[in-house]
Amino acid sequence: MKFDKKPNYSNPISPITIEQSRLKRNQYLLSLLQEGQRLGLITSQRAYQIQLEMMQILQQLIQQHTQGESTSVSSETAQGLMTSLMYAIDTYTLLFETPEEAIAHLQDENMKDIYSKGVELLRHYFEEAKQLYRDVKKMKLDVPVDAYQMTIDESLPVFMKHYDIIFEAQNTMASIDYPLAIDDMRLRGVFYIKQYLERLQLETRFCRFFHQQDVMYMLTNFGNINRINYQIELFNIFELMINNAVFSLLSGGEATDVRISEIQFEQINQMLTASPANQRTKLIHEAVDQLQEDLQTDQALTDYINLYRDELVQRVSNAAEVGSFEKLIIREVNEREKSMVFKVNENDRMSDLQMRNFVDRILESDSTEEKVQLIRRHVVSLHDYLDLLNAECLFNGEYEALFATFGDVELAILAKIVFYEELREDKRDFSDIVAVGAETETEWEVHYIAFMQQLDDTHIRAVGDLMYEINYEDISFY
Q1: Do 106 and 92 touch, CB atoms closer than 8 A?
Q2: φ, ψ for residue 71 (rounded to 5)?
Q3: What string of DSSP letters covers 100-117?
Q4: How big, in percent rounded to 5, are the helix, strand and coil portions of the chain?
């Protein structure tokens, strides 16, 4: 069977037209039969016959599923098999250019043949998805963004390994964390994964127009401006890159230069804030056109960028209305914010066995002073400190005794962990954040907050000042 051509059909096509808006993408056959009967394109007798033929296919699937040992399954399993069956049939009927052509085939083709052709189409799309995955894997960006890397290295392989065309064709299987700029979450199964990979490939190709150091520049400053650890956040890299490329063009820069200085930022801010809405929209569209021309994007990438245009226009409009482009335009931050860098060497970590033995040793001690001394003498890695604190081998005042031995830098690092959510968007002073505290059920964090709250204001401010000077992305917390 060839999939690059429209299937042949022998029945005449009705001149009556079905409104596409009345059809459902995820229940295509059912909505097609419903509309076909309503408009007189298909008889109720044929619709009933189609249902009977589908039930016969379902019986065959049940026997196949139970490997011939039973003709019945639970209602939940039967429903899942029927959904998979209909997903395959929908795949075939969606191949036709018009619903009327699909109706013509349903009139005289038996459902077993239609189902078989649907399954073959799914196999074809699955092979395309696997090739797309191989391409994405080869070209993926070298960036320390967990969601991006884990989606490609761990989540998508789950789909490739476990996707079941016969019994669970409608199931997407994998948990995809990395968000696309433009995603269609209505799709299911191989259609969703195939589209996800196509768009991820386009976004990655776009990001590859820029130097690796510029991509890292964007990620670093995005994290600093939003006061987050970008490595563990869910955001879209393509959006960061295309936004700043457009803003670069608006300020007289090059399409491939995403670095925005403070002077450029003020220039863009003033221009977009002062412009009326229609003028802002015009400026953005002109800059996007210029971007596509300068980068010489191919048709597929041009079309994808066009899908994103309206989203960017809306974001610019929203920022202009509130009079702030602080979060939308990623600019170079003050160098002072990079003055303190910490690197945690993985080799400094204890092995799992060493950590378990050390925790046992702490638990065996009855002396708070001895516990604190053991910890300060033997633990040198931030990872190990976190493992130890989460092991709950300290009790009540022992936490405070340990925190009291910490310097301001160590307290500041823990503050970034404990008050992570509060620091993201909160404009309050650190002293105010400490005074109010944070919602947490983790025992050591509860004790940490209590410890910080009993420090004097000068000490808290000192920890807060250090905290904002720590280059967050260089701290590997987990």
Answers
A1: no
A2: -105, 5
A3: HHHHHHHHHS-HHHHHHH
A4: 65, 0, 30
- What's the angle, vertex CA 447, arms to CA 446 and CA 453, rounded to 5? 95
Neighbours of 283 (CB within 10 A): 19
195 CB burial (10 A radius; 0-12, 13-18, 19+): middle
Q: Identify the H or E element spanning 315.
A: helix 299-322
- In Å, the largest CA–CA distance within the chain is 90
Separation CA 291–CA 288 (nearest Å): 5
List 340's β-bridge partners, or say none. Answer: 470
CB 423 within 8 A of CB 434: no
Q: Would you mind telling me the total number of residues written for the chain in this entry? A: 478
Residues 337-375: tens digit of each pLDDT: 444 445 444 456 788 888 888 999 999 998 999 999 889
The closest of 254, 235, 240 to 147, measured between CA atoms, is 235
Q: How far is CA 477 from CA 221, 333, 346, 424, in A?
A: 19, 23, 11, 17
Q: Which residues contact 322 (CB under 8 A, 6 or more apart)?
A: none
Please calculate the CA angle 43-45-49 and round it to the nearest 5 degrees: 120
**SS3 sequence, 408-456?**
HHHHHHHHHHHCHHHHHHCCCCHHHHHHHCCCCCCHHHHHHHHHHHCCC
Rg (CA), the chain: 29
Cα–Cα distance between 336 and 355 in angstroms, integer? 37
**Closest by alpha carbon to 218, among 248, 242, 240, 251?**
240
Structure tokens at 366: 């009855």
Q: What is the pLDDT of residues 177-203, one digit of tens each?
A: 999 999 998 999 999 999 999 999 999
With b meaning 16 or more CB within 10 Å and e meaning fewer, what string describes 355-386? Answer: beebbeebeeeeebeebbeebeeebebbbbbe
| Contact call for residues 282 and 242 (beta carbons, < 8 A) | no
Report the b/e string of 209-233 with b at 16+ CB within 10 A: bbeeebbebbbbbbbbbbbbbbbee
Per-residue pLDDT tens for 206-234?
999 999 999 999 999 998 888 788 888 89
Token output for 30: 């059912």
More confident residue, 136 or 349: 136
Q: How far is CA 182 from CA 92, 178, 236, 305, in A?
A: 26, 12, 10, 9
Residue 428 backbone dihedrals phi, psi, to 5 degrees: -70, 160
